[in-house]
Specification:
With 356 residues, this protein is mainly α. It has 16 helices and no strands. It is globular, with a radius of gyration of 20 Å.
Length: 356
């Protein structure tokens, strides 16, 4: 079976998973269902086939366009007013990452550099690349970040609708108000814009290019041409399923074996990070005018596209969620690796002195 046929088969299985979760009325069904079905398929395969990076980037482009269609013009004013809370939040989440890394180092047999790169609350692909360049075990780092993102997606998929007071809010991907005319006309148009954003991101390379360019094109297109309140259901469904395939395809037998080996320790540290992150999000809610669910989705380190997707589904301030998530990723990308490398070397030196 060729790679293309295997990818098409993966897409079919993911679609079945998404539709099944939708029929069961589960939250965020097309993301969570596709992710679960793909992870199960990868585990059962003797020769797993991870989704190409282009699938992830295309999914981020589609989600970015969806966010652009929901863009609020009052966004800039609200963001400027959050300058001080944002700075405090970024410092807090950076400290949380370092503390979690030290905790993982103390409780496991991992070296300091690997443990710290596991817990940096930044982009998974960037931290994996950095870890490999500086001698850390990139396989463990990749496993930890994948498990962390899945844990946060699953937790917030169920917690956010409950806090919002609408347990069934996740049973649709883009709102029940999307009519057939939106499906017939705007969905193909938005797919073209998402494809354009993805193509541009392959030519203009910078951090999260596919996501940011898609948001920009979505804002411009919706302001000039579409004038939609939200993207059509079918369009957001496609983006969520592709994102689910991307995340789920990272789970194969080797990944599960590594998770089992470090299972208790990894889960303890991840739960610690999740609970403290929820506390930081609650404090952000208390000192700002943002709603509780918006604050949690904006501040928890679960990925910009993933948290923005949940916010979009629940009708939260998706532009604020996406912006704060992207600010966190940019900050961690610029600052965290240097601090992690410095602290990792200090931990390695202390470990050597202790053995000596």
């Amino acid at each position: 079976m060729t790679a293309i046929r295997r990818l098409l088969f993966t897409g079919t299985v993911a679609a079945i998973g998404g539709v099944s979760f939708f029929l069961l009325g589960l939250p965020l069904p097309f993301l969570l269902g596709a992710m679960s079905a793909t992870a199960l398929l990868q585990t059962l395969r003797s020769d797993p086939l991870p989704a190409p990076q282009s699938v992830t980037q295309f999914a981020q482009s589609l989600i970015g366009v969806s966010i652009g269609c929901s863009f609020s013009l009052s966004f800039y004013q609200s963001l400027i007013g959050l300058a001080v809370p944002l700075i405090v939040y970024l410092l807090s989440v950076m400290v949380l990452g370092l503390v979690s890394g030290i905790l993982l180092f103390k409780l496991s047999d991992l070296d300091g550099m690997t443990a710290l790169f596991c817990c940096v609350p930044g982009g998974a692909s960037e931290m994996i690349s950095y870890s490999e360049a500086y001698g850390a075990d990139s396989r463990i780092v990749a496993t930890y970040h994948t498990a962390r993102i899945v844990l946060i997606i699953v937790s917030m998929t169920f917690l956010a609708p409950w806090l919002a007071g609408s347990p069934s809010a996740g049973s649709t991907a883009g709102g029940a108000g999307n009519s057939l005319d939106l499906f017939a006309f705007w969905t193909p148009v938005l797919l073209v814009i998402g494809t354009l954003a993805w193509w541009l991101s392959t030519r203009i390379r910078f951090r999260a290019a596919s996501f940011l360019l898609a948001v920009l094109l979505g804002v411009i297109g919706n302001g000039v041409l579409f004038h939609l309140d939200k993207a059509p259901l079918t369009f957001t469904m496609i983006g969520q399923m592709l994102l689910g395939i991307s995340v789920g395809s990272k789970f194969d037998r080797a990944t599960w074996i590594r998770i089992v080996r470090l299972g208790k320790t990894m889960m303890l540290v991840m739960m610690f990070t999740l609970l403290i992150s929820l506390g930081i999000g609650y404090l952000f809610y208390r000192v700002t005018s943002a709603g509780l669910v918006t604050s949690l989705l904006a501040t928890i380190p679960g990925g910009a596209a993933e948290m923005a997707t949940i916010a979009l589904t629940l009708g939260c301030d998706v532009t604020l969620v996406a912006a704060i998530q992207m600010i966190r990723l940019f900050t961690m990308f610029m600052v965290a690796p240097g601090m992690t490398i410095w602290l990792g070397r200090r931990l390695a030196a202390r470990e050597t002195e202790g053995k000596g």
